[in-house]
Amino acid sequence: MSSDGFRVGVSAAGEPRFETWGETIVARDEERDVTLLLTGELINSSARQAVASYNKRGRAFAAELDGSFAAAVVDARKARVLAVTDLVGSRRIFCSEAAGGKVVSTRLSDIASPGCPLDPVGVALVLATGAALNGRTLFAGVRALERASTHSVTGDGVDSRRYWDQGFSGEHAHRSPAALRRELVGLVRETVRDRRQAASGALLSLSAGLDSRAILGALVAEKGEVDVETFSYAHGAPKPGSDAALARDLAALYGVRHELVESYHGDLGAVIRENARLGSGLANFCDEVDAWTTLAARGPRGVLVGDECFGWVDVPMRSPEDVLEVVGIRGFDGIAWMARLLPGDVARSFEEALDSQLDEIYERSPDTRDLHDRKDFLYLDQRVTHVLMPWRDSFAGRLGRVQMPFLDRRILDLMQGVPSAMRRDKRLYREAIAEAFPDLLAVPRARRSGYLVNWNHELAAQGPALHAAVGSTGSRLDELVPREVVLELLARRRGARAGAGYGLKKAVDFAASRRGLAGRIARAAGARPLRRVDETTVLLRLLVLREALATG
C-alpha cells in the first residue's frame, strides 16, 4: 500500500491547510503562493511544470497530465484546493465534510472518524461484488473522488468537473485493421519503454495470459535483453499447463530470471487480517496476499503489471442486467440467499441500496444500443477503477510504484475510436500481439491457475479458530450483519464438501477468462450467466469486513 500521501482541508474561513507524509512531492511557486502536492508520478511532465501550467491555465491544466497519480493544488490566494485524479483513479482521494470545512485525503482513515456511520450501500456492494463501486466507501458521507476529474474544494463545498471523457466514437472504423494493429503495437512498445524507464529494475508480474507476456515481448524488442526480473504466484509444485508453470516457460524463452512465489503459507486468519489491514475492506479479496508480503519484505521495487482496457469478453447480452453481470457487478439477486439470515430491515436496505446503485451505475454508460460499448465503458469506469486499482494500490503498491503501461492515456485514446467489433474479446489487441511477438505464442495460454487455494477446505479446517476469533471480537459490521450470521456460515463450511465452493468457482472463473470461453459457455447454456455469489465467497468478504471494522 502506498506510503506517501496528503491531507488537505479548507476551513470555514477559507484558509487552506495541508499535510503530507512519505515520498509525496511538493512543488511551490512562492510568488503566487501556489503549492502542488503529488503522489505517484507524472509521465509527460514534472511537478514544477505542472505548477507553471496551473498558473497559466487554471483547472484546465489537468487535461495535460498523464501518469498514475493523485494531486492537489493548494492556491492560498484563491482560498481553493484543486484535487486531481488520474484517468483510471489509480490513486484514490477521499472526500468528507468535517467540522470547520471540507477535507480531502489520500488516506481513508484520516477522514472516516471512529464514529462515522456505516454506509449500507458500500457494505452491500462489497458483499455482492467484492469491492465498493461507484466511489462508495464503508462510511456514510465519505466518497472516493471521481476519476479523470478536477475537484475544486472551497469552504462552500466541492465542485467536480471531468477533464477527460471516455466514449466510443468509432472514428477509426474506416481504417484498415492492419493500420490499427501497427499503431497499437507502436503504442504498446512506447508505453512499455516509458514505464520501464520510470521503474528501472522493476519486477514484472508475469502470467500465461496475453497481457503481461506482451509487456515481456515489448521489453525484449526494445533492448534485446530484459533488465527486469519476472515472478508469478504458485501454490505448491506447479502442475503442467498451469499459469505458474507456463509463466516460468515464458521467462525461460528469453533467458529472464523468474521466481515462483508461494501464494499461501497456510494461516487463513493471517490472510484475513492482512486483507483487512491493507485493503481497509474496500479492496477485492487478495488470494495471494502472502506472496506480496514475501516480496515486500525484500525491500522496495517497482512492479510492471498487465492491467488493460482493450475490450472485455464477447458474451451474448440482452439486457442491462447482462451487461452488469459480465463486468462482475451483481445486485441483490447475487446474495438474496442471505435474506433469511439477516434482520428483515437490513435485508430490505441491502436490496434497495443495490437496486438503486446498479441503476445509477448503468446510467453512467453511453446512451447507445450497442451493449458492448456499455460493457467496455463500465469495465473501465467500475471494474478497473474500483476493483483493480484499489487492489493494485493496496497489495502490489507495497513493493513500490505500480506501472501499468496498457492504461496509458495514448492507448486509452486510441481504443475509444476502435469500433466494438474489434474490441470484442480483445480482437484488435490479440491480433496485433500475435503479429508483433509471434514467438511468445509458442507457449500456450494457461487453463488453470496453479496458485489458487481451496478456501472452502481451509475454512472447514480452520473453522474452530475462526469461530473463536469472531465470537470474542467486536466489530462495527455487527450493526448490519450480526456476528451470528458469520458464525452460521462458518458452521456450514465445516460440514461442506472440501472440493465445493470458492476454490472450484475461482478455477472455473480463471478458465472462463481465457480466450472468450465465458462467451462459449453462455452460448451453450442459451441463458444469461448465473448471478448467485456462493457462500464461501461471501463468508471471506464478511470476515475481512469484520476485521477491517473491528472495535477491539
Describe this structure in words.
The chain has helices spanning 47-57, 108-111, 120-129, 177-198, 211-223, 243-253, 268-279, 289-296, 320-326, 344-363, 371-394, 409-416, 420-423, 427-436, 455-461, 463-472, 483-495, 502-512, 517-525, 535-548; strands spanning 5-11, 16-21, 25-29, 34-42, 67-75, 80-85, 94-98, 101-105, 143-144, 149-154, 157-162, 203-205, 229-234, 258-262, 303-304, 402-403. The relative contact order is 0.13. Helix 3 (120-129) crosses helix 20 and helix 15 crosses helix 17 (483-495). It has a 6-stranded antiparallel β-sheet with strand order 3-4-5-6-10-11, with helices on one face. A 5-stranded antiparallel β-sheet has the order 2-1-8-7-9. The longest helix has 24 residues, at 371-394. The radius of gyration is 23 Å and the shape is globular. With 552 residues, the protein is α+β, with helices and mostly antiparallel strands. It is 41% helix and 15% strand.
Q: Summary?
A:
With 552 residues, the chain is of the alpha+beta class. It has 20 helices and 16 strands.
